[in-house]
């Protein structure tokens, strides 16, 4: 099934639901960063969470940055996701591996450890909105739900999953269900919803059983006035890095540093942390940057 995101409402607009399948983009991230099993699960869950959070933004170009900074061996996670369905991300230690947790699952919580979740929402103008909450479990889903409740005052249930085997990622994605103020006063509705979400065995088992996102929504909300929006948004791993941007970053280093790179290394190499792309700048290209800086200095002088 193609990577995609769909939206729905229920309870006359009192419940907002978003589902996303991220199998292929998580596999791409695994390959790009040479991720271990547990690192794949951690980054995959966070990328799905980022896409789900970005889906509620309104302005074209809006993006969400999710940083998980824990004291575990994973060394942190950074994800950038957009309303346009693009996402990218990386982990601090892609090769870390841990034994399964007591439930026999990949120990994402152990890999992340204790620490903080930082979320920055950039709506394309003004100052980005940022918020920080303490990690609840390090399992990502619990932590993002905790953020949504405490920082955005929206009761939320978040189910995330990544299944990765010897052949790579075969199922990944997530489900976000939020109870808006108009429905939050209906205690019976909220209790029923909480019970159904708690009864889910996970998200990836549903995908592996052949369930589609509309079918998953219908199982949870079908008797609550479910309305599934017809638009299906494609989602993908995408990084906006380029050689021109690399040259721009090198130029900031200044003449002395660029000259040192020419003498010592006969050029420069830059690796994008988000996607792993490698860029090589020759000594001639660095010399051109120096010439550009000198020309600019002359004009300003």
UniProtKB/TrEMBL annotation:
The chain crosses the membrane at residues 157-180. Disulfide bonds join 239-241, 272-275. Pfam families: HSP33. GO terms for molecular function: protein folding chaperone; unfolded protein binding. Under oxidizing conditions two disulfide bonds are formed involving the reactive cysteines. Under reducing conditions zinc is bound to the reactive cysteines and the protein is inactive. GO terms for cellular component: cytoplasm. SUPFAM superfamilies: Hsp33 domain, HSP33 redox switch-like. It is found in: Cytoplasm. The keyword Zinc applies. One of its GO terms (biological process) is protein refolding. The keyword ATP-binding does not apply. Keywords: Chaperone, Cytoplasm, Disulfide bond, Membrane, Redox-active center, Transmembrane, Transmembrane helix, Zinc. Redox regulated molecular chaperone. Protects both thermally unfolding and oxidatively damaged proteins from irreversible aggregation. Plays an important role in the bacterial defense system toward oxidative stress. NCBIfam families: PRK00114.1 (NF001033). Belongs to the HSP33 family. This is 33 kDa chaperonin. It comes from Nostoc sphaeroides CCNUC1. The lineage of its organism: Bacteria, Bacillati, Cyanobacteriota, Cyanophyceae, Nostocales.
